[in-house]
Predict the 3D structure of the following.
Amino acid sequence: MVDQQTADAMRPPAVLAAPARGHPPTSRAGWAARVLLPLALLLWALALSGTRLSRMGDLGLIQALPPTYWAAVALLTVGFATALREPRTSRRWPAAYVCALVVVIHATPSLLYPTVRYAWSWKHLAIIDAMLRHGGPVPNAGHLDVYNQWPGFFELNGAVLRATGLSSAAGLAAWYPLLANLLLIAPLLLVFRTLTGDRRLVWGAVWLYFATSWIGQDYFSPQAFAYLLYVTVIALVLRRLPQPGDPQGGAASGARALSRPPGSGWRLGPFLAVVVLIAAIVCSHQLTPLMLISTLALLALRRRYRSVVLPVLGAAVGLTLAWDATVARPYISENLTKLIAALASPDNNALPGIARMAAPAPAQVIASWVDRGLTAGVLLLALFALLRHRWTRRTPLPWLLLGPLPLLLANNYGGEMVFRAYLFALPAAAFLGATLVVPTSRGHLLRVWCSVGTILVLLAGLFAGYYSKEAMNYFTPQEVAAAQYVARTAPAGSRIVTVTADLPGGEDRYDEHQWLVLAQAPLPDLKRLLADPAAELVAALDDRTLTGPSYLVLTRAQAAECRLTGVLPADTVDRARAVAASSPDYRPVFANQDAVVYLYAPGTPAGTGTAPVSPSSVPDSLGSAPIGSDQP
């Protein structure tokens, strides 16, 4: 005989009855939920009109956004909690609040910035352009040949461009974070509705996911595309698993019933749909198929799940091995030694690897600790929920939470594995956290306000991670113009040299141009660069094997990256500019307030070759240059 408290801990949340159609809310909470949403969106619109990008500093967009923006976020959180607590409020209101949160977070940069955000988005645009020009794999791709071996995302976007007649995917890239997160709501709902029929807990888990997803892997990229498919596959698998409950596998109280008898296996149509999704993941990204295999393998440890999980696991393993043994074989063969060596150092794999030549900005140090605190807090909430709610341990949640762990210990993935592991564990962690912090209609008002306060603290951590580096992630039109000038005018066989890789479109026409990033050089070269920048610049630019000229491109964003991250000392870009400005071997051929392009032409008389710009138009400093656009 167990007491009532123990029985409640073993039982999933009960289904909350939906309000009757057309039944108006009679409580203050019901009216508040209806009023706070439009009020928050109005404040957000006013905040956008009052944002000045020139205010961005070492905390990025956090400093540029006015108080009305943060008031809008707070009102959204209060309104969402109110909508969940009031049982007579239509279920459409929690959905509207979640969509509003996604829009307020992810549409803000798209509306404020006149150019595509983030250098890697520009890189992927360049790859799509190259594949379109060559009609498939890109020859002479150099280190970017890896994308020829996982081309699914790029070929899909190329097909969209051909079908629509558009010349570039830049418009899609600018809005991709918003689109990717809005599309993610549907598979998250499928996952959470499999675990409970309580709509408060379902929508609370979705809200908590977006309130803690600070990693920023939602930009225009193969991993964002593959992650959406990953969550969809997991959702489809979970929908066919036996529900926690009686020994016969029947649905427990409060759990959503399956459309087919539990454990009855797959029908051909749904299974083929899952296989197609897995194939799209396998041909688009290196890591996501392995995450899927790891999670499915852990799910298969539970015997009652095997009839559903093992066929999908077999398809994932078979497709991944087939792809890696054929199309991706060059990359696998070249990196096999490194992959095996990583298995012997699990302690190093679990740590983020960031090589720095200087101290990062103090504000960024604080932001990084906030991010770590957010990550630890979310995972601790999830573990506490597993201990407190026994019914959660009878669901697939523990296996979903542990799914990324084997890969976290197996490879560091360029120092990013710890962040990717958090992202893949986040759906399970968000649901578990929601069981602790989501307000209920029976809860005391003080508990509701504690829940609101907890969610606001988590959101603060999200903004610290997602917005704090915008001074380097945002590119002004002037910087884009400089990069496009080089891409369009540099003849084939040219070399483009930059201090960091933070250049919008540095990979443009990468099959024709070489791009050399000084910050990515071996440690001895970096030390020589700091000791004698003039000699190292000449070593980088003066290569007799080149069939074209060399260009030095210096921009505001490169200086911001040095200052924020400490990858090089904060004055490195200005020191390089000073070297070029004082030497007759460098001729400025393009310049504006945020960028300058030098043609390296030793011994060439002035006035020959590419037309130089007036020295007076070259900025005196890029390291402290304000962001050039204040357009909202």
In short: Strands lie at 495-498, 514-517, 550-555, 586-592, 595-600.
